[in-house]
Design brief:
Layout: E1 2-6, H1 11-22, E2 26-31, H2 39-50, E3 55-59, H3 67-71, E4 76-79, H4 94-112, E5 119-125, H5 148-167, E6 171-176, E7 179-180, H6 189-199, E8 203-206, E9 212-213, E10 216-217, H7 218-230, E11 237-240, E12 246-247, H8 248-259, E13 265-268, H9 283-289, H10 297-315
Parallel strand pairs: 1-2, 1-4, 2-3, 4-5, 5-6, 6-11, 7-10, 8-13
Antiparallel strand pairs: 9-12
Helix pairs in contact: 1-2, 1-7, 4-5, 6-10, 8-10
């Protein structure tokens, strides 16, 4: 089957491409190499897919590219492209979030309108919940983001839904909960923690470290995304959460055990835009997608720690 992945050079997108290629699909990857982080890291993310005969890569920006030729023949489109990151989405940066998350999604939806695609999977975010009233949080909870980023992800998710409602676009959304693992973006917590720990520097903790996250290992997120492309669930939204909530302090204790390095920490003020807690009810994904997260936080953190050191030694001359 021919499929397309937007955001193919990103953290989750690059893993998704490899998984789809391994399953025998022809994969069209689309990415504009936005400057949110270094292009060289994104090129490294793509290397595995690029070496595959059934991978075709297009460097293109969804907002201004001529999309129909790029998407031609794709039966499934996985839309992961976007401007990520909760904390930098304030001030002047907001324009970029609106452009890359809302306008880009609208352009993609317009390009897919009336085409015979079988499924569009939109990569949504736990950040749409903001400070949720109930944990674990169900998909039916009132979304009330606490960051500008979350507002743009929610807007894009709603856009996807209304193209289903008005034009029959066969779309489904998944809401990822703080995904981690090899290739995690350099601005995200575990990448920053590992970099500081290795350099003997203080780990910067935003707030008291007692905030919780439902961290989700990347292979689990990818598996749920693929299941969302095949199950009979058009028009629905699914939480993809790793299966348990842990505090940032617990993560640091586990990282200390895994690395054998004593953590030095510096507590900074809590960051505007960060929800205090996230926690996913994953019953819907279990029941309707037949999906179950498999990788524990300790196992996943060990995998990311190993990858972090391997990729660093590869980069050193
Ligand atoms: C992550 C992604 O960055 C978003 O793109 C995504 O949309 C979101 O998950 C999601 O679930 O949808 P976040 O939860 O902030 O956002 O992920 P991390 O950067 O890994 O932060 C996790 C926790 O560690 C947060 O409470 C944050 O305040 C804390 N943190 C992060 C620190 O204490 N220090 C740091 O240096 C970085």
């Amino acid at each position: 089957m021919r499929v397309a992945v937007t955001g193919a050079a990103g953290f989750i997108g690059s893993h998704l491409c490899e998984r789809l290629l391994a399953a025998g699909n022809d994969v069209v990857g689309i990415d504009c190499f936005s400057d949110y982080y270094e292009r060289t890291l994104k090129e490294q993310n793509l290397a595995g897919s690029r070496s595959h005969d059934h991978f075709l890569f297009n460097e293109a920006d969804l907002v201004d590219a001529d999309l129909p030729p790029l998407l031609d023949g794709a039966e499934v489109v996985y839309h992961l492209a976007g401007q990520p990151g909760v904390r930098p989405s304030w001030g002047n940066q907001f324009d970029r979030y609106v452009r890359d998350n809302v306008i880009a999604t609208q352009r993609l939806l317009e390009a897919l309108k009336g085409t015979p695609i079988k499924r569009l999977v939109f990569a949504g975010s736990s950040s749409v919940y903001g400070d949720a009233e109930m944990f674990p949080t169900k998909e039916s909870a009132l979304p009330r983001p606490v960051s500008p980023y979350g507002v743009t992800k929610l807007a894009a998710e709603h856009l996807t839904h209304l193209y289903t409602r008005n034009f029959g676009t066969p779309a489904v959304s998944v809401r990822y909960f703080t995904v981690y693992g090899p290739r995690q973006r350099p601005d995200m917590a575990f990448s920053r923690f590992m970099k500081a720990l290795t350099a003997g520097k203080d780990i910067e903790v935003f707030g008291d470290g007692e905030q919780t996250r439902e961290f989700t290992y990347v292979s689990d997120a990818v598996e749920g995304t693929i299941k969302a492309s095949t199950a009979d669930v058009v028009g629905q939204v699914f939480n993809l959460g790793g299966g348990s909530r842990v505090t940032v302090n617990q993560v640091l204790a586990t990282l200390e055990e895994i690395s054998g390095i004593k953590v030095k920490r510096q507590n900074l003020p809590a960051a505007p835009g960060d929800p205090r807690h996230t926690g996913a009810s994953i019953n819907l994904a279990r029941e309707r997608l037949g999906w179950e997260p498999r990788v524990s936080i300790r196992e996943g953190l060990s995998q990311q720690w190993s990858w972090f050191h391997e990729s660093r030694s590869e980069r050193r001359p």
